[in-house]
Specification:
By secondary structure, the chain is α+β, with helices and mostly antiparallel strands. A seven-stranded antiparallel sheet has the order 8-7-11-4-5-10-9, with no helix packed on it. Strands 12-13-18-17 form a four-stranded antiparallel sheet, covered by helices on one side. It is elongated. It has helices spanning 23-26, 55-58, 146-165, 193-205, 217-222; strands at residues 6-7, 18-19, 53-54, 64-74, 79-83, 85-86, 100-104, 109-112, 114-117, 124-128, 139-144, 169-175, 179-185, 211-216, 240-246, 250-253, 268-275, 280-287. Bound molecules: zinc ion.
């Protein structure tokens, strides 16, 4: 059990959720003005957890990469692994967290069953169902479940196209491996299922490039029409926001993972259009090859 670095919350509250940081890891970032003697409990300093470098944002097609273990925290159902960087997308924005494996240098595989945003700002935690034989400082290999992620990327990108076909505000959405949905506040608009399906598949087969660019928070504030989602606002405060740009088709802030060209989505059908109240409709898409 010594490999698992769990300990009391330094704030003295709740259950044992906080990792005890190894001195080896903590010491390089300890400022020189810290007192030499141990602080009293009331003055205990919460460790500064560095942001997890999100490799999936720079290249959504990378399936394997090295990383270093920063913490392993035991949970009721297994463990949470914190790495210095990750390929695993954390659940958010309607896209599920990635699954896959982490491989130790000895070759032991730890199955990652979900990925979530961590309690500390800008951190990402990898969830396991069993206690892994990993220690702080271990160099590991990450490998995401690429067939699953690629289907999520295809469906996620398809929802961008759907939002461009239906001229209404988006109130919610969810992607999964076989299906995806967007909820629209349609007002007086009448949805023509067949026309939507035809337009959607035309945008897919036109094989439009899917790019990304960044704007400042101020530029986003000045262009509120860029934000189609009425319920989920893009994260601000980091100084810049990423826009997903399908030139001539769709432009909106998004933190998810996308395919490089719309042709990669493949043909889709409208599974159903559900009424969710007088003004609201849920449009559910499915892959035809599913
Ligand atoms: Zn997106």
């Amino acid at each position: 059990m010594s490999a698992f670095l769990t300990g009391p919350n330094p704030a003295g509250e709740g259950r044992a959720l906080w990792p005890i940081w190894s001195q080896r890891w903590l010491s390089p970032i300890q400022p020189p003005f810290l007192p030499q003697e141990a602080p009293r409990m009331s003055e205990t300093i919460t460790p500064i957890v560095p942001p997890t470098e999100d490799l999936f944002r720079a290249d959504a097609y990378q399936t394997e990469a090295d990383a270093t273990v920063l913490a392993v925290t035991e949970t009721a159902t297994g463990a949470e692994i914190l790495l210095d960087r990750t390929l695993f997308y954390p659940n958010g924005g309607g896209q599920p967290g990635d699954t896959g494996v982490i491989v130790s240098q000895a070759g032991a595989e730890t199955r990652i069953v979900d990925t979530r945003k961590g309690a500390q700002p800008n951190t990402i935690v990898h969830l396991t169902e069993a206690l892994p034989a990993l220690s702080v400082g271990d160099k590991i290999l990450m490998r995401i479940d690429w067939p699953r992620r690629h289907r999520l990327m295809r469906m996620h990108t398809c929802l961008h196209l759907l939002s461009s076909v239906i001229p209404a505000g988006v109130t919610g959405g969810q992607v999964n491996e076989d299906k995806g949905r967007l909820d629209f506040d349609i007002g007086e608009l009448v949805l023509d299922r067949e026309a939507i399906e035809t337009q959607l598949n035309a945008l897919i087969s036109a094989d439009h490039p899917v790019g990304q660019r960044w704007i400042t928070d101020a530029e986003l504030e000045a262009n509120p029409s860029l934000v189609k989602t009425m319920s989920v606002q893009p994260p601000r405060g980091a100084g810049r926001v990423r826009l997903i740009d399908i030139p001539g088709v769709d432009l909106q802030p998004c933190g998810g993972t996308h395919v490089a060209r719309t042709g990669e989505i493949g043909p889709v059908r409208i599974d159903k259009i559900e009424s969710k109240g007088k003004r609201n409709r849920r449009v559910v898409l499915a892959f035809i090859d599913a």
